[in-house]
Design a protein that fits this description.
Length: about 190
């Protein structure tokens, strides 16, 4: 299993390409499609099977429609995120004066605990707090944490759908993953 990180040019959000053989999934959609395609072209014949969203904030979904059109794959997000994607206030795009609303029949609610995409098994950890739809994805010895936790702190809890108490609860859940590599939504892995 290999991970390739791309950093979007807007608010420096990370997008990850997780590769297992000829199968790949993408975590978050903040990087431009062409940047993702450049990585995939270097890797050879790769099938992108799905996009997993850590949460619905606009900097993590900015190029989602381009990904869906190009890869013709499903997108998975916490069920609350489906509504947040549609609402510029809830996805925080309105705050940055670039309101977006995303709806697409390929956007699916995550199952409860685990999803298997191709030959990649992904455990889902609900980590509400930064948003009411924040999740982390555990794949082998890696966790993709979105904006729940970073190398130098935790995600902010002052935006629509944020909750300090939910964040505290989520951080307790994440303690059992301290020994694996963390790939956050911004900044460096740790």
């Amino acid at each position: 299993m290999k991970v390739y990180k791309l950093t979007g040019r807007h608010i420096a959000s990370n997008t990850y390409v997780v590769l297992n053989g000829g199968n790949a999934i993408i975590v978050d959609a903040g990087a431009k499609l062409q940047d993702v395609l450049n990585v995939l072209d270097e890797l050879g014949d790769i099938n992108v099977s799905a996009v997993l969203l850590t949460h619905s904030h606009f900097d993590h979904v900015l190029h989602l429609n381009d990904y869906i059109k190009h890869f013709d794959c499903n997108v998975y997000i916490d069920i609350k995120g489906i509504n947040n994607l549609k609402d510029p206030r809830l996805n925080a795009s309105e705050l940055f004066r670039m309101p977006i609303s995303i709806t697409n029949k390929r956007i699916m609610p995550l199952p409860e605990n685990t999803i298997t995409i191709g030959d990649i098994v992904v455990d889902i950890v609900r980590t509400h707090g930064h948003t009411n739809d924040s999740v982390c994805y555990v794949i082998d010895d890696m966790i993709f944490t979105g904006d729940t936790i970073f190398a130098d702190g935790v995600g902010r809890v002052d935006l629509p759908t944020s909750s300090i108490s939910d964040m505290q609860e989520s951080l307790l859940k994440l303690e059992k993953y301290n020994h694996i590599i963390h790939y956050p939504g911004h900044g460096d892995d740790f």
